[in-house]
Amino acid sequence: MPGDPASLLPAEALSAVTSIRGADIVIGIPSYNNARTIGHVVYAAHAGLAKYFPQFTGVIVNSDGGSRDETRDIVLSSRFPDAHVLMVSTPLKPVHRLSFPYHGIPGKGSAFRLIFQMAESLGAKACAVVDSDLRSITPEWIELLIRPVLHNGYDFVAPYYHRHKYDGTITNSIVYPLTRALYGQRVRQPIGGDFGVSRDLVSRYLSRQDWETDVARYGIDIWMTTIAVAEGFRVCQSFLGAKLHDAKDPGADLSAMLHQVVGSVFALMQEYSGVWSTRSGSHDVDLFGFRYDVGLDPVEVNLDRMKNAFRNGCEQLSEIWAIALQPDTLAAILQLGRVFSSPFHLEDSLWVRVIFEFASAIQRKPIERMHLLKSLTPLYLARVASFVEETRTMTASEVEQRIEELCLSFEEGKPYLTALWAGKPLPHLSPRAPQSEPPGLEVSKS
After folding, report:
1. Which residues pair with 62 in a beta bridge?
2. Low-confidence spans in the chain with pLDDT less than 70
């Protein structure tokens, strides 16, 4: 970003930068009408800074999207009378708390932009962002997101947590397997929402020119992850336990999130095609923290709603699907919609073809981009319905094994993608045999 980053800050934020002068660590919390949960998130962030980084100056920045409830008041006025219980020693530096409305396109990405501008203006060595609807965040999350940056030389810390098997279906069915196959790094939660970032990577993010795109809405998490893995920044993960937040039924209307997240993945594929087209396979990413089993909130699933949305899509969207899908892929999808067998099953190899063909079609026909992305929703719901039926009685470890098998199908099908992308003859993409052994675990770091 040319010039002084502080010059782009709102007047209120610029005044705070001038007053504080500098900070070592910035914790950012984007929000919109989160009065019910944000007090706990601020409390955990404040305690984490005071307990684990007492020698550093810390700033908590709430970047708010125009909340109509008491979100900002809670951030600024919360008192922590029992904070001494959490501390090992008396903090040497104060923790500042700030709350500002952000400007620009409404969405999480615009909130992040203000947080990153604050971090760069304050000269922060490390920055972390955490969701404002978290109920499971603890002070240890702050340590696990910041310490790898401050003390181990990493640029990007992704979250690694246990989630209910039906929470995070966009991640599990599309974003994780596709991103892993493209860039070769097994970042399990590429759109997890809670990240640690180095000063160098903050500067790289701010230098980008695509802040006014879908990145400004739901696309920010995958945008951050993709830039880090594609451009060679040092990437790791930290195990944070459970992610307990305001989870949604995957059959509910997640269309806007799906379009913006997947649209961002596809757009970045075009930018980084020279990177991913030369990579094959994948490798583990260093994992910090102590792994342990946790209890999880249930996620209610409406199977009938998802199946009906797919059936309606088969009746109404076959013409737009024909723009994206190869004839044999389209025929298999429409046959699935006609038969509608029980249990309902959309096999991995067919799903891989759907995603690869949609990505390539958007590259070839950018004018059809929005129509194609919107038409993907019923297909995504079909895949989720298939996954739910298949894993209904499976344990968490068995479900993770199924996701691993899907990831391997994406990796093994990558020659199909590269041929499709380049307009070359397509190799046959056959179903893979299921694994008999579970995948290896990441290497844990102390």
Report:
1. 29, 99
2. 1-7, 79-94, 246-253, 293-298, 340-341, 430-446
Residue 9 falls within a domain, yes or no?
Answer: yes
- What's the structural domain count of the chain? 2
Averaged confidence pLDDT in the chain: 88
pLDDT tens, position by position, 309-339? 999 999 999 999 999 999 999 999 999 998 7
What does the H/E/C string look like for the chain?
CCCCHHHHCCHHHHHHHHHHCCCCEEEEEEECCCCCCHHHHHHHHHHHHHHHCCCCCEEEEEEECCCCCCHHHHHHHCCCCCHHHHCCCCCCCCEEEEEEECCCCCCHHHHHHHHHHHHHHCCCCEEEECCCCCCCCCHHHHHHHHHHHHHHCCCEEEEEEECCCCCCHHHHHHHHHHHHHHHCECCCCCCCCCEEEEHHHHHHHHHCCCCCCHHHCCCHHHHHHHHHHHCCCCEEEEEEEECCCCCCCCCCCCHHHHHHHHHHHHHHHHHCHHHHCCCCCCECCCEECCCCCCCCCCCCCCHHHHHHHHHHHHHHCHHHHHHHCCHHHHHHHHHHHHHCCCCCCCCHHHHHHHHHHHHHHHHHCHHHHHHHHHHHHHHHHHHHHHHHHHHCCCCHHHHHHHHHHHHHHHHHCHHHHHHHHHCCCCCCCCCCCCCCCCCCCCCEEC
* 94 belongs to a structural domain: yes
pLDDT for position 420: 96
Q: Token pair of 75, please? A: 């951030």
Do residues 233 and 348 both lie within one domain? no
Domain that holds residue 408: 303-428
Contact 120, 7 (CB under 8 A): no
This prediction's pTM: 0.90
Residues 284 and 326 in one domain: no
